[in-house]
Each structure stands twice: as structure tokens, then as C-alpha cells.
Amino acid sequence: ETGVTQTPRHLVMGMTNKKSLKCEQHLGHNAMYWYKQSAKKPLELMFVYNFKEQTENNSVPSRFSPECPNSSHLFLHLHTLQPEDSALYLCASSQELAGESTDTQYFGPGTRLTVL
Amino acid sequence: AQTVTQSQPEMSVQEAETVTLSCTYDTSESDYYLFWYKQPPSRQMILVIRQEAYKQQNATENRFSVNFQKAAKSFSLKISDSQLGDAAMYFCAYSSINNAGNMLTFGGGTRLMVKP
Questions:
Q1: pLDDT in tens, A40-93
Q2: Which residues of chain A does B96 touch, with a Cβ-Cβ cutoff of 8 Å?
Q3: Any chain B CB within 8 A of the CB of A66?
Q4: Left if phi > 0, otherwise alpha if psi is -120 to 50, otherwise beta: which for A109?
Q5: If you write DSSP's letter for every residue of B23-37 in order, what string do you get?
Q6: Is some CB atom of chain A closer than 8 A to the CB atom of B111?
Q7: Residue B97: left if φ>0, alpha if ψ -120 to 50, beta else—which one?
Q8: Which B-chain residues 68-97 have CB contacts (< 8 A) with chain A?
Q9: If you measure CA to CA, which chain A residue comes closest to B34?
Q10: Which of B18, B19, B11, B22 lies closest to B92, judged by CA?
Q11: Taking 70 as the threshold, does the pLDDT of residue B23 lie above it?
């Protein structure tokens, strides 16, 4: 499945580093999402972008900063993370009609993040 | 707020046999979508099957079918003729139709093991 790609696949960073996760969708969708998957916890939605506008910020700490420059690309900028932020970060996309929901979300392979 | 519960942390099935994974959800809405996603060791989240709540007919996708009981708020997944490649984490998910944030609410997952 190459509809949604994520880079890097693995990332190890120190608490003082700044890094970015990248997601790209090749499906012509207009909505993109960031999820966090921690061990023994359900997937948590972090951010939603519809038509490049952020429509959801699920109480995510400011050390996570999303960016959606166009409908095909989504970034998650990371700075001064904590060890508890270590997790699998999944990107997804879907085709949404304005004011309605929802089409199926298609996921990327994820970035495994380890914060030392 | 909607919640999704998967009461079976782990299940095991013999190859070629049938297994059913349970999912219950809580909502006050009458229209919504339900999904089953599969996450193999590669960590790619793959859509297995989708059900619209307004449809009475249970969704079917090859060897995968659901038993959707709207009144009981139950959405179980049946896998027939299990194959080794079916081994994975399975997540049940809920999405509201009238949800501007297009949020998916996930259950905690069920790990399915397939024995040869």
C-alpha cells in the first residue's frame, strides 16, 4: 500500500532536539490526520486538517506542532519532547465533503519515535 | 462522547477455522460509521471492512463479515477460513456522520494469533 507514505520510518531523538515527521498522500484526498499509538493505549487522534485548515486539536501539548502546506502533505514538528512521547505516530487521509463526514481513513505505515 | 470497547485482548484460531472478534460501542447518535482495521507486525493500519449504521444488511468482504446489532450496539467481526496472514492486531473504530472533526474513536484492539 503506497497511498499514504511517512518518513522517516524510525526516529531516535534527544529531549533537546528538533525534528519533523512527514506524511504524503497520493490518493487525492482533502483531509489529513495525525494519530499517536502508545503501548497498551487506544489510538489517540492528535490533529485533523480539512481542506488545509486545522479543524481539530485534541488537547495536544505545544511541543507538537502540525503543518499542512497543501492537501497532499502533512508535517508534525517536534521539539523538546519527553520520553513519554515515545510512540508510533500514524498519519491518515480521507476524502471529506464540506460539512459532512465521513469517508474511510487510509493510514500510512507510521513513524516509530523514541525519545531518549 | 463515544466509546468503543473490545473485550478480548487476545484471541487465537486454528488455520482454516473461523473466529469472531467482539466490539461494543456507546453512542447517542442514530447515524454513524463503524470500521474494522487490521494492523499486522509491519504496523500499517489496513481497512478490513466498513458498515454504515443506516444499512441493515451486514457488510461482507471476502472472508470477512460483520454481525451488526444496532440495538445492542454490537459490531463483531467474523473471519472465515483463517489464514496465517490474518495474524495481527484488529481495531474496531467508530465515526460520527455529523462530525466536522472527522474523528475516529478506536477500541483497545484484539491481538489475533493464527496457529498452523
A1: 788 888 998 887 677 667 689 999 999 999 989 999 999 999 999 999 999 999
A2: 101-102
A3: no
A4: alpha
A5: -EEE-S-SSEEEEEE
A6: no
A7: alpha
A8: 91, 95-97
A9: A104
A10: B22
A11: yes
